Structure formats: structure tokens, C-alpha cells
Amino acid sequence: METRYEKVKNIIRHFQTGYIVGRQTAANERLAFLVVMVVITKRSIPQIVKIQRNQFFVGIKGFVFRGTSPRAGNIYYIQLPMSFMDYLSSYCFKYQVAGEGRIFPFHSDYVGNRVRELVKFVGYDMSINDIQTLIPYPYNTKQYQRLAFELLDMLQDVHYAEMYRCFSGEDICNSIRIFEEKHLKE
């Protein structure tokens, strides 16, 4: 039997690869990233869709996310792996997210509907709150960081695989062009 953590990882994978539920649903890196942020920040979808790029920065101890609790207004910091900074930079470049722009340009109802649709599709009995409360440990403890970093690595694995395909194809095309220029002129 799958644990709740494995189920959430499976949901993230489905968002990364796409799924068919009455219609073809294309892979959506942004929704996968959003679900990871729901888990890591332990915040609701309406709060997550408001995250801005400038809430991520390099701090004294590494890469940091700075959030504010909605009710009390308390500021909290979450330590993230430095490797995540590369992912976030390329994500923001790919989707043209400005310095103070929102990371996720979705309406919270749309995201909630997509998550509920996928949960129903895979046959899990869980809610968005179950996803939000997945990590029971306080921020920045070793147990918390182990689980959070594993989820962030899932995002980076897909990103690096796409980067490899893209750069490999580009390298091959450039090599062919150089070969043709060199040998066709002779």
C-alpha cells in the first residue's frame, strides 16, 4: 500500500508527464512545481498562487524562501538547496517571470480543480489539505529538509533531462553544420 508521501510524489509525476481523463491533459511543469510548493510551505493553493519571485533569495545559510503566515503575519524562512536556485532561474526565464512577478499565473480555482481531477483519476482518497499537511515536521529540521529536498529534486530531474535533450540536439546540429561547412568547401 502506498504511503501518503508516495501518493503525492505520484501526483507530481502525473503533472510532469501528463495524463488522459476524458481528454488529453498535457504535462504541466508549473502545476507540478505548484504542488511541490504547497507541500514545502504548508500553505493553501490561494496563498501559493501569490508567491513572487523576489521571495526567493540567497541568504547566509544558502538559498531561502521567505514567506508570511496569512493570519498572524509572521515571517518564516525555509532553507532550500542551492541547486534549486538554478531550477528557479531557468523556470523564471522559460516562463518570463519578472523580478517581482508571480511565479504561478493561475487562478486558485483552476489549480484546485486540476488537483482534484488528478486525485480522482489516480483513485486516491485524499484532499488538498492532505497534500498541504504532508510534511509533519517543523521547517528546516533534518527530517523536513530530507523530504522537501527530495520533492525539489523531482522537479530538477525533469528539467535536467529536458536540458540534456535540448543541448544534445543543438550540439549535434552544430556539429553537422560545421562538418558540412568544412567538407563542402573543400
Radius of gyration: 19 Å
Average residue-wise pLDDT: 85
Helix/strand/pairing category:
mainly alpha
Low-confidence stretches: 159-167
Largest sheet: 3 strands, antiparallel
Spatial arrangement of strands, main beta sheet: 3-4-5
Helix content, binned percent: 55-70%
> Could you tell me the strand content as a percent range?
5-15%
Number of helices: 7
Q: In one word, what is the shape? A: globular
The tally of beta strands, per DSSP, is 5
Q: Can you write the helix and strand succession as a string?
A: HEEHHEEEHHHH
**What distance separates the N and C termini?**
66 Å
Offer a concise description of the structure:
Helices cover 58% and strands 11% of the residues. It is mostly helical.
Write the topology of this structure.
Layout: H1 4-17, E1 19-20, E2 24-25, H2 29-41, H3 45-48, E3 56-59, E4 62-68, E5 75-80, H4 83-94, H5 108-122, H6 128-132, H7 142-185
Antiparallel strand pairs: 1-2, 3-4, 4-5
